[in-house]
Amino acid sequence: MTTWFHSWRAAVRIARRDAWRSKGRSFLVLAMIALPILGVSAFQLTIRSSELSAEQRLERSIGAADAQLTDAQMDGVPVLQDPQGEQNTPVEDFTKSNKPWPSGPTDVTKAIPAGSTVLTDSHGGAKLTTVHGLLQTQVRELKAADPMARGIMTLTEGRFPEKDDELAASTAFLKSSGLTVGSALTARGFDREYRITGAYELPSDLKTEEVNALPGAFLAPYAAAVEKAGLPKPDVSTTYLVTKSGGFTWNMVQEINKKGVLVVSRAVTLDPPADSEVPLYQRDDFHRYEDSAAGNAAALAAVATVVGLAMLEICLLAGPAFAVGARRSRRQLGLVGANGGNRSHIRAIVLSGGLVIGVAAALVGTALALLLTFALRPLLEEYMGARFGGFTIRPLELLGIAGLAVLTGLLSAIVPAVTASRQTVLASLTGRRGVRRSSRVLPVLGLIAVALGATIALYGSLFTEQFLIVAGGSAIAELGVVALTPALVGLFGRSGRWLPLSPRLALRDAVRNRGRTAPAVAAVLAAVAGTVAVSTYAASGDAGDRAEYQPKLPYGAVAAIVTEEGGRDAPAVREAVQRFFPVDSRVDVSRIAVGKPGCDSWGGGQGCGRFEVVTPKANECPFWVQMPDGSDPSERFTPAQRTKLRQDDWRCQGMRGEGVYVEGGMLIADAPILKVLGITDPGAAKALAEGKLVSFSAPQVDRTNNTVGVRLITDTAAYDKASQDNKPLPGEIKSLPAYQVPGEPLSYGVQSILTPAAAKAAGLTTTPMGAYFTTDRLPSTEQRQKLDGEIAKLGSQVDLTLEEGYVSKNSLVLLALTVFAGLVTIGAAGIATGLAQADAEADLKTLSAVGAPPRVRRTLSGFQCGVVAAMGVILGSAAGVLPAIGLRLAEERQAVRFYEQTLAEGWGGPDGPPVMPIVVPWETLAALLVAVPLGAALLAALVTRSRGALARRAAH
Q: What integer is the mean pLDDT of 897-922?
């Protein structure tokens, strides 16, 4: 060891030999370091491989075309767009001119340059027959075999359609439908049969259920068939793939934008113009959707904090393992010193152990990440729903991740290296431990860190709304507690006088050898503190969600609502629910229909209208009064006035709670619906019997004559135009005698009820909508699955609501955190126990020599492990509650500020300020404080041999 290089080479060789000899310990440390490296490297490979180049994105969206032209749906007014065609806005600022926002189609074909080759790409929807029933499916009309469409779809089997009676289907559709290539396919209400000729996938959306037909082969005849049957025809959107000599320049794109058409240009996307040449970016009211520097810095700080804490946890766990190796190799290290080696050589040997394990962990973790990511690539693509652009390897990023493994190994070995180098040659050769005093500087630094971190966290929780400040302060305070661990371990030793022999010996040994006890306790502390912090935060959030939970129906009630195709499937849905659920009573409900019988709710489509409940002028909230000039009426009030009006004026208060969403909040149903909704007012049942409308919303009742007005809107376009122009609204108004239920009853979203007989008498047309049910017990999982399967066969969009009360979503999370903390605790305590056994072998031999029974070895080992676990759990539980409280306080400040702001703007709800309780998860703490140390102690006692191995007599 005459030079630096030769001394380190020898140290590495010695460390490599020792690691090979102690395979179990080496594998344990290697696994602790390699597993995080494996996970991070695999994540990096997956993310990078899933990223697409600009050329790949274009190939998957526009194929081999030069551009894709799309209707901006702004009635043909000139628009501005970004170079990628993702963001756009009208050239005219309609917000300043108080003009209605443009809406409507334009003729895209007039914007296509002359001499271009065009391929249409149309999208619609249809209910297709499957093996299981009906399936709402996206239908795409695109000549996929055309060279211009190359790359949009990837053929996996068969061929693309070549005739009008042929279809290709996505693999996701074939999987859901049970059909195969060669199967016949029909649509509901459409008598034409198609043959599936091939299967394909969309590279960027593997989960899309879609079929492909030639242009004009399906959507137009299907729309004619369903419209003939009295049903609304499906909405169809068409884009145009265009190829032109010379492509589409940015100037051409801007010219086409003047006709209200958006363009995705291959040339512009691959070579975008400067920001100064993009008019959209120069608009004052435009905000680019990109990451801010502050947001990136905050995310980077969060990632750095998580990585740092993870490295600290690994170092605390692996450090004692290296100390075990150094302690068991102390005779060898003593021989190095006896033959002329100095302290730097001893440190180099122990540090080389960390270097060897770190390098091995980096190689193993990176190699496994490469192999697993490559092997699992199809599964990862299926899970993410998109094909990778390629298997992308970025060596520098992988090298940086691997460097973390090497750094972690070296950091883990620093403290054992310094400790081993301080041993005298005589102590190392004779096995004497000598007298070791703990550092006096470390506790002072720990106290300073705890005070600083607590101050930062307190400031963040009480005076700001920045979660990152609270988290950063908590992390600093936790590091301070870690630094205080040796001193805290010493305080625990004072309780030994009241303990029996074995636990007293274990506690005494832990206190006397704080160098090996403190890292293990700190590792347990860190794991438990994180677990307790997350558990407390989750339990508090769960309690807040429970307090603010608003049921949609009375407990056990069910609502099945069908809003499409004029309630065509409502009778079948009613029967299905009654057949599969434990139904106690059923009440059929309907809705008011305006226009053709097959129209969906809220109108839409030719010949379809809608209705609305008219609020009398005297009952309109001042915030929502329509101003003649189109201005915002709430601007007439100060924030304080808006807050007072929102809280005190009955006209501005919304209904309590939530509920099942129905058109206009009105149900057409008979009196038993009151029982389902839990309405006990006898006046409501009497009013329904008298043919009156029962109202739960005071503002909709005209108090001068106790009536409610219902406007029938037959021409929705004229109504929308009149509303935009602040003109009288068209539509016949039906005045219905009404009864207002006193007080503020919880009606679960229903604003009014009218019986079918009263609706018919008033000249209102109704259509089936579904039913409300009561049950004698909650349905089982099996019953729910059967009902879901039956509804899926109908192919109808059903809004099915089962009220089962508040269901916590965090129970599994809390259990997983408890198990994780328990495993880390047992692992850290086991490492400390192994080190204690290596240190206390002489004491055990002495006990055996004076007649102690063999079980003492087991008992002592169990208590040594339990003592370390108990100390770490107690300290970690105390350290973990405070960050969670700080985060909840900061969250409360943010929620209260948002609530006050919404009140001041006139949008606050009637349910009062947010509820933000702080709840300690006592079940999790009990499991950590009792079960985990006890389990660690029992496990250590079980795996420890009762009799020690024979050892040679030490020569002094």
A: 72
User: According to the model, what pLDDT value does residue 883 have?
Assistant: 77
- pLDDT class of 243 with cuts at 50, 70, 90: very high
Segment 718-732 mean pLDDT: 81
Has residue 115 got a pLDDT over 80?
yes
Q: Return the structure tokens found at 938.
A: 């029992």
For residue 835, give both structure tokens. Answer: 């080190």
- How far is C-alpha 264 from the chain's CA centre? 31
Q: What is the mean pLDDT of residues 85-113?
A: 83
> How far, in Å, are 143, 309, 315, 523 from residue 535 at the CA level?
55, 18, 24, 18
Does an H or E element contain 624, and which? Answer: none
Q: Which two tokens stand for residue 210?
A: 């879609």
Please choose, from the candidates 880, 871, 843, the residue with its C-alpha nearest in 3D space to the C-alpha of residue 937.
871
What's the gap between Cα 823 and its chain centre? Answer: 26
CB 703 within 8 A of CB 748: no
What are phi and psi for residue 355, nearest 5 degrees? -65, -45
How many other C-beta atoms lie within 10 A of the C-beta of residue 576? 22
Q: Which residues contact 71 (CB under 8 A, 6 or more apart)?
A: 105, 106, 108, 237, 238, 260, 261, 262
Q: How confident is the model at residue 704 (pLDDT cuts 50, 70, 90)?
A: confident
Q: 864: which 2 tokens?
A: 């040594």
176 class by beta-carbon count within 10 Å (0-12 exposed, 13-18 middle, 19+ buried): middle
Task: Quote the pLDDT of residue 437.
Answer: 57
Is-contact 446 409, C-beta < 8 A?
A: no
CB crowding 906-932: b at 16 or more within 10 Å, else e = bebeeeeeeebebbbbeebbebbbeeb
